[in-house]
Amino acid sequence: MGRWVIMAPERALRPVHAGAPAEEPDSAPCVFCGGQEARDPTEIFAIRPPGTARNTPGWQVRVLPNKFPVLRIEGKLTREGVGMFDMLSGVGAHEVIVETPDHNLELADLPEQHICAVIRTYRGRMADLGGDERFKYVLIFKNCGYAAGATLTHAHSQLIATPVTPKRVKEELVGAQRYYEFKRRCVFCDTIRQETQLTRDRLLLENDTFVVISPFAARVPYEMWIVPKQHSADFISIGEAECAGLAQALKRTLLNLREALNNPPFNFLIHTAPFRRTRPGYWATIQQDYHWHLEILPRLTRMAGFEEGSGFYINPVPPEEAAKVLRATMEARSS
Ligand SMILES: [Zn+2]
Ligand SMILES: [Zn+2]
Ligand SMILES: [Zn+2]
C-alpha cells in the first residue's frame, strides 16, 4: 500500500499517554519559557541578540531536539528486506521550534515581525537538514490544543525529517504531476486564478504575496490553505517579502479561526517538494508542477469507521459556508 509505519515503543513514556489530559502544568514557567534554558541546554539554533550565549535568556525563537523523538538523528540509513517486507532504520530528525519565550502568548498573538522570525527559523532548519544526505523530506507542523496532539501548551511547532517522502506528500506530487502532464500548467497556480478571478466564494484573504482559501471539497470543516502567489515548489526559496506576507496572512487567519470558532484545536503543516539532490532529474517537472503551501486543519470532527475504511472524508461544513462565516468574522473585527 506504500505505507510506512514508525515503530516507536519508547513514545509510550511521553508526558501524555493514551487519552490522559495534559499532565504538564499549564502554568509558567515551563521548560520552554524564557529563563528556563538551563533545564534544556540542548539548543540547536536560536534567534538571539549578538553576543548572548547559547542556552541563555534573550532569545526570540529557539530550536531544541524533541525529548521524545519519533525518529533519531544518530545512525546510518539502512534498508533491508525481511522476507516480503521492507524495513528502514528509524533515522531522522525531530525538533521543536519554540516560537516565543513568553508562556502566555500563542503564535497568532505575536507581532508580524516575530512570526516572520519563526518562518525564517523554519526555512533555516529546513536548509540545514537538507544538507544531510539521509533525509528526503522535512515536514514542519504545529499541533495546537490537546485534541490536535499538543502535549505542551507553550507556543511551539515541530519538524520531522524523514528518509522517505511522506505518503500524503507523494499523493499531492503525483496529482500535481498528472495535472501538469495534461495541461502544462501548475494546478496550484490554476487554483489561485480560479479562486481569485473566476469565483471568490472560497477566498478568505489576499495580500501582495499570498492568498488564503478554503479549498474546493475541503476535507474538514474550516480547512484553509495559504498559498504563495509566486510559483515555487520549495518553501525553502521563500524571500523576505514573502516571509512578511506569510506572517501577515498566517496571523490574520489564525486570529480569525480563534474568533470565529472559539479557539478550536488545529494543526497546520507546510507541504513542500522533497529534497531532490539524491536522484537528480528523477522527477523532471517537479519545479514546474508542484507549488508549496501551508494547510490549516481545525480539529472539529473525528474520523470514524467509514472514513478509516474508505478513505472518504465527511465534511459537514462546505468550504463556501466556512468561508462565509470566516469572512464575516474578519469584517466584524476590522469594522
Ligand atoms: Zn512556558
Ligand atoms: Zn504554481
Ligand atoms: Zn498540501
Key terms for this structure?
335 residues; alpha+beta; 10-stranded antiparallel β-sheet; two-stranded antiparallel sheet; 7 helices; 12 strands; 19% strand; binds zinc ion
Concise structural overview:
This protein is an alpha+beta fold. The protein is built from seven helices and twelve strands. A hairpin with a 3-residue loop joins strand 8 and strand 9.
Q: How would you describe the overall organization of this protein?
A:
The protein has 335 residues and is of the alpha+beta class. Helices cover 28% and strands 19% of the residues. Strands 1-2-5-7-6-11-12-10-9-8 form a ten-stranded antiparallel β-sheet, with helices on both faces. Strands 3-4 form a two-stranded antiparallel sheet. Helix 1 (112-130) crosses helix 4 (240-260). The chain is globular. The chain starts with 44 loop residues before the first strand and ends with a helix.
Topology of helices and strands:
Blueprint: E1 45-47, E2 61-65, E3 79-82, E4 85-88, E5 93-98, H1 112-130, E6 137-144, E7 156-162, H2 167-183, H3 187-198, E8 203-206, E9 210-213, E10 224-228, H4 240-260, E11 266-271, H5 286-289, E12 293-298, H6 305-310, H7 319-334
Helix pairs in contact: 1-4, 4-7
The site of one zinc ion has 5 residues, from helix 3.
